[in-house]
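Friendly challenge for the regulars: who can give me the structure tokens for this chain first? No prize, just bragging rights.
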Amino acid sequence: MTNPLTLYLAAPRGFCAGVDRAIKIVEMALEKWGAPVYVRHEIVHNKFVVDGLRDKGAVFVEELDECPPDRPVIFSAHGVPKAVPAAARQREMIYVDATCPLVSKVHIEAARHHENGLQMIMIGHAGHPETIGTMGQLPDGEVLLVETVDDVAGVTVRDPGKLAFVTQTTLSVDDTIDIVAALRARFPAIVGPHKEDICYATTNRQEAVKAIASDCDALLVVGAPNSSNSKRLVEVARKAGCTYAQLVQRATDIDWRALEGIRTVGVTAGASAPEVLIDEVIDAFRARFDVTVQMVEAAQENVEFKVPRVLREPA
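First reply, four minutes later:
Bragging rights claimed.
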């Protein structure tokens, strides 16, 4: 006799419009130009997705100089420093920019503030490709990075009266509110974005986790260890009252011993995790428990982004 288990399935979860578009860009590039098509950095942070595209003929590299000049190259959804497309143009390469339009919006914002003589402060995670890409839109020293409230106290600016801030799109909404408050307290004249930089998908997935966390004995986030928005979902779940929240890449990563005796489990997925991996996790629970699935919807999403024109034109 299998034990009963209620599985709370968070919605929205999984792919966002920017990830969907980026994957489509690689697939359409392969159709248009044939294999191999080169991709600078993982197109999105998910091993399953990357492996699937690799099987179709995508070659993933970390730097542009690893790409031959006669094959197309695609820039990842996280965005790239300005120097990268400039180098591609210099080498007369065909390139397609798969940067999420909501990340591009932050790039445009940073450039506009720079033109107005403002120094930028970026709230983000050091070393994350999105942070590197956004900071690389402006000359060295024009974007200062802060990761925590404590960092705000230590940041040295050129002129406290001429500052603006932007954020990485995949941060914890609650943590970012605290950092922004610290920036505004220390630099009252600082200019913020017209509309929050944290993207709709990150916000919605965090809200959905908050809606189920306190009802769950355990919560699993399907996502990659290098996925910023997936890691934030784990943190949000713990803060919202679920003591056992874990990141799993797929069903084979689930620690079943840690889940002995549980009655309720929440399941969600980061913005770069495909639904097939979520289904796999649900099936793994069904094989061990008498599962009742309850969908908990925090928001509805109907955002869609067009692919670049170069892919819509015939070869």
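The two ends are 59 Å apart (CA to CA). The chain has three domains: 4-15+200-297, 17-100, 102-186. Your move, everyone else.
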